[in-house]
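Structure in, sequence out. Go:
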């Protein structure tokens, strides 16, 4: 498709991406903008990033750019670094013949562990996932090349996997999640043949390295389409292998608190993203795992005879550890998630100065937001406690004193639903005074 037959102009492409494309091209290499960048520009959306593909090898790219790092093992890439902006430059992928296992390797299920066979542009196109992602913008003449009907599918709003879907999902099960993500993000329909094997192959997601899954989950739930993605993941059975502890509860009670919490957190994350407010994985994981945590605490208490309060602390570590088997949550997020959990217990013990102390805790705001969600989900005493805190938080200084003095009645009632600290024995002094 020549320049005058499509709508992409160089003005829409980032300066850094253009620099990379031109430098490669002037050095005698082919250079294309590819994937999401081209796709989104054609759809009138703002691309998240610009990816470049070339026939230069990572080593040749490195020689051309001082600011270049070669990264990746499964899939070697060059990163050209411009301050905070990074342009990813890939080398054309080729087909996997019977080449040696240093450059190409698959496991027993057909999952590609290494994908570093280089080739030509049409082979590269066949190795991409969806036809709408196999669009190439050629810097040498500003034309667009489309493979496998990418341009037609883009116009029709169809997501179609290139090649045999089952083989392609087995090579890389993450493509199943990408199908859902692109369907919601681009308002496209997953083609029937592409959709068909997903439910059956969904369990293959269990074998994806947990670090990669962490990144995919961010893309699914932190880009303003969390609710839509969750619903479609449920439809295709893709949620269960990612969040097994949550899923167990969803299966137990499809309309129970765990489901209400998942929906509440998806909805509130979308609202925040769409208002450009910050979102954090610590809050997201604290919320989504709250009911599995409660369940685990009760199980531990029954099995071990610990108080529910002590069992709760043991359960925090367990629940995080289990989740990290599928999605590796970095410590810098799991540690604050535990703080958010602990503060839930302290909300119930909020007479007098304690309430003020809590207010100063660095995780107060996030913990308070979770309390509000729990209130919505559970109603009853939790909702009353949430309302009390809301009053306290929104009051001015003097009003706060009065509210604090009156105490959080809802919590004072020893809410059956929240683990409580063992009643302290009356102190010796008090006991004496009582005599
Ligand atoms: P976005 O950046 O908006 O999430 P994208 O399509 O650019 O979408 P990237 O993950 O940036 O997605 O990948 C860039 C391109 O690389 C894709 O458009 C696709 O052509 C190819 N690609 C990425 N991941 C895969 C995969 N798992 N299998 C095959 N091709 C892939
Ligand atoms: Mg991209």
């Amino acid at each position: 498709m020549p320049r005058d037959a499509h709508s992409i102009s160089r003005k829409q492409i980032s300066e850094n991406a253009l620099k990379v494309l031109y430098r490669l091209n002037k050095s005698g290499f082919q250079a294309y903008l590819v994937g999401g960048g081209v796709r989104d520009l054609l759809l009138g959306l703002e691309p998240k990033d610009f990816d470049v593909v070339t026939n230069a090898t990572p080593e040749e790219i490195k020689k051309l750019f001082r600011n270049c790092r070669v990264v990746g093992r499964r899939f070697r890439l060059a990163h050209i670094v411009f301050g905070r902006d990074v342009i990813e430059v890939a080398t054309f992928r080729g087909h996997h013949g019977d080449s040696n296992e240093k450059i190409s390797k698959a496991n027993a299920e057909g999952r590609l562990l290494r994908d570093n066979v280089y080739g030509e542009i049409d082979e590269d196109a066949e190795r991409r996932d969806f036809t709408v992602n196999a669009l190439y913008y050629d810097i040498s003449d500003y034309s667009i090349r489309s493979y496998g009907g990418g341009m037609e599918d883009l116009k029709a709003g169809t997501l179609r996997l290139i090649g045999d879907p089952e083989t392609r999902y087995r090579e890389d099960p993450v493509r199943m999640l990408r199908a859902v993500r692109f369907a919601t993000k681009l308002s496209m329909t997953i083609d029937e043949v592409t959709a068909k094997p997903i439910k059956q192959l969904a369990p293959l997601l269990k074998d994806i390295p947990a670090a990669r899954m962490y990144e995919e989950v961010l893309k699914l739930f932190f880009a303003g389409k969390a609710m839509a993605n969750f619903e479609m993941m449920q439809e295709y059975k893709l949620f269960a292998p990612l969040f097994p502890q949550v899923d167990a509860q969803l299966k137990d009670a499809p309309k129970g608190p765990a489901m209400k919490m998942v929906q509440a957190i998806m909805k509130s994350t979308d609202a925040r993203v769409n208002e450009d407010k910050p979102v954090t994985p610590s809050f997201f994981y604290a919320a989504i795992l709250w009911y599995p945590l409660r369940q685990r605490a009760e199980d531990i208490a029954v099995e071990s005879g610990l108080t529910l309060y002590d069992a709760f602390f043991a359960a925090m570590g367990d629940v995080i550890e289990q989740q990290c088997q599928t999605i590796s949550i970095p410590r810098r997020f799991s540690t604050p998630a535990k703080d958010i959990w602990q503060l839930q217990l302290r909300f119930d013990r909020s007479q007098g100065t304690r309430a003020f102390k809590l207010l100063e805790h660095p995780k107060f705001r996030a913990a308070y937001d979770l309390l509000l969600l729990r209130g919505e989900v559970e109603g009853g005493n939790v909702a009353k406690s949430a309302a009390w805190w809301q009053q306290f938080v929104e009051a001015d200084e003097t009003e706060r004193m009065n509210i604090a003095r009156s105490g959080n009645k809802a919590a004072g009632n020893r809410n059956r639903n929240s683990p409580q600290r063992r009643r302290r024995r009356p102190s010796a002094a008090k006991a004496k005074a009582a005599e």
